[in-house]
Amino acid sequence: MQLIINQIFNNNTALVDLGDKHRAIVRGKGIAFRKSKDSKIDTTKIEKIFYLDTDESQKDLYFLLKDIPIDIVTTTYEIVDYAKKKFDYSVLDYVYITLSDHIYGAYQRYMDGKYKPSRIPDMSDKYTSEYLVASKGLDIINHNLNIKLPESEIRNIALHFINARGSDKSNQRYIHSKVDLVKLIKTILVRNNIFRTGSNSNYYDRFMIHLQYLLERLGDMAEDTPFDKKIELEMERDYPGSTGIARQIFNEIEKITQVKLNSKEMLYFIIHLQRITQEDGLNQNK
């Protein structure tokens, strides 16, 4: 099969057409050097290939490339590809957006000397596969980006896979209420003096993405386990302010959708809110 360049990102990375409107990202040393759009790729130079299997995955790629360097994006694709192939791990497409955004933020903080180890509780006993994926993911990040993030970063990476686990076939039952619900959540945030700002925009947008995809998987909400409840209580103890706001959002979603959410969702809300307020210099720990 001939691979035709659709877009060049740098000398080592390009987007190629596979035919029938299918595309992939290819990576390899010098693979796009002195090439141009519509040139043929030397397939012997391909070291990694990441298939964009759906229209949604292609849209996600273009969304990411607006703000995130291609090396971060391909690192994310490599981690997700590992999860799918090694563990047959099914994830929703939006993991590419949230994980890329997280890796880029961690990279920037590391390079600026502002990186802080994760304070997310260790959940490896409950989520073994996700932590194994995250452990390999940390190795990939450190190797590809030439940095040395600590092992505590595994908890952050694992959380993205826990959060995004599911079928690519979205549950459509609640999509009609998406816009109104997100608008309502923003109203709750404003009521608590939380606004989207230049400093917190990445975390704020990530929270909005989480809420939108939450609505699409409400029909698959898993029941609480004692472990999930234990983690929620630990986060509530450490971040009482963020927990209070998260509880308001939690209750409103349950009220509107008539679906009982679980402790895992409460945990995500607390983490998102803590990151938003911490980045913006607000103190929600009281």
TrEMBL record:
<feature type="domain" description="PRD">
    <location>
        <begin position="176"/>
        <end position="283"/>
    </location>
</feature>
<dbReference type="InterPro" id="IPR050661">
    <property type="entry name" value="BglG_antiterminators"/>
</dbReference>
<dbReference type="GO" id="GO:0003723">
    <property type="term" value="F:RNA binding"/>
</dbReference>
<feature type="domain" description="PRD">
    <location>
        <begin position="67"/>
        <end position="171"/>
    </location>
</feature>
<dbReference type="InterPro" id="IPR036634">
    <property type="entry name" value="PRD_sf"/>
</dbReference>
<keyword id="KW-0677">Repeat</keyword>
<dbReference type="Pfam" id="PF03123">
    <property type="entry name" value="CAT_RBD"/>
</dbReference>
<dbReference type="Pfam" id="PF00874">
    <property type="entry name" value="PRD"/>
</dbReference>
<dbReference type="InterPro" id="IPR004341">
    <property type="entry name" value="CAT_RNA-bd_dom"/>
</dbReference>
<dbReference type="InterPro" id="IPR011608">
    <property type="entry name" value="PRD"/>
</dbReference>
<dbReference type="GO" id="GO:0006355">
    <property type="term" value="P:regulation of DNA-templated transcription"/>
</dbReference>
<protein>
    <submittedName>
        <fullName>PRD domain-containing protein</fullName>
    </submittedName>
</protein>
<dbReference type="InterPro" id="IPR036650">
    <property type="entry name" value="CAT_RNA-bd_dom_sf"/>
</dbReference>
